[in-house]
TrEMBL record:
The keyword Metal-binding does not apply. It comes from the Bacteria. This is Nucleotidyl transferase domain-containing protein. The keyword Mitochondrion does not apply. Keywords: Nucleotidyltransferase, Transferase. SUPFAM superfamilies: Nucleotide-diphospho-sugar transferases. Signal peptide: none annotated. One of its GO terms (molecular function) is nucleotidyltransferase activity. Residues 6-111 form the Nucleotidyl transferase domain.
Length: 247
């Protein structure tokens, strides 16, 4: 299916990135000369997304100023200055600014490089797999060996039929959640209106056999600490992709 709406979760405090985030929001921390969130926004543009909601809290004015200068997307702001809503609450609040059509959800500090030039992007693959009749959500996933900056935790086991379950020691085909989802906003019609963690809906979908995953192409990067910046930049140099093209 074609997905033209998206939500980017960008309101966190970035506590592990201190002292850098004592004066700026984590999504604006530069990696290879570009703010992290720009890699994410470029990924959405490459997949044909037209409209994106970004939630803001920490140094919200800096985020708004930067996003106002980004070209290629209609960007709407979900303001969480008054109170952080956690991943689930922030998503529910932000999706209200979009219509009811399918949407991508992405984290502002997780991105990837090394997709095949001219081929189907990872998000297009995610959209093609998403079938609301069988799935609550489909998550982009990556094997641990194709991650940079990750803590080594295995999030899910990816079944041969595409279903995901929480990883337990010894499970086959362990994967890391790569920070991108395809879903329908109506999934959250019964959601709380205050802060809650999105993992509640992951576990609910697993219990119903409706959480699916697809394995991404390329190398996945997460930058959680100041020390991880250099590792991410070295990976980008290694892939010859410091411009962010194909991110």
């Amino acid at each position: 299916m074609k997905i033209t709406n998206a939500m980017v979760l960008a309101a966190g405090l970035g506590t592990r990135m201190r002292p850098i985030t004592n004066s700026m929001p984590k999504p604006l921390v530069a990696i290879a000369g570009r703010p992290m969130i720009d890699y994410v926004l470029d990924t959405l543009v490459a997949a044909g997304v037209e409209r994106v909601v970004v939630n803001v809290h920490h140094f919200a004015e800096q985020m708004e100023s930067h996003l106002a200068g980004y070209r290629g997307l209609e960007i709407l702001i979900s303001d969480e200055r008054a109170a952080l809503m956690n991943s689930g609450g922030g998503l529910v609040k932000g999706l209200k600014l979009l219509d009811r059509s399918p949407a991508f959800v992405m984290n502002a500090d997780l991105f990837w490089i090394g997709e095949k030039p001219g081929g189907r992007t990872n998000l297009e693959h995610l959209a093609d797999v998403f079938d609301p009749a069988r799935m609550d959500m489909v998550l982009l996933c990556v094997p641990l060996e194709r991650t940079t900056g990750h803590n080594g935790k295995k999030d899910f086991s990816l079944g041969a039929d595409g279903r995901l379950k929480r990883y337990a020691d010894g499970d086959p085909n362990p994967v890391v959640y790569a920070g991108a989802i395809a879903l329908l906003p109506e999934l959250f019609d019964d959601a709380p209106q205050d802060a809650f963690n999105l993992n509640i809906y992951f576990d609910r979908a697993i219990a119903r056999g409706r959480l699916y995953g697809v394995e991404m192409a390329g190398q996945w990067l997460t930058v959680g600490t100041p020390e991880a910046i250099g590792e991410a930049e070295e990976t980008i140099r290694r892939f010859g992709n410091a411009s962010g093209e194909g991110a």
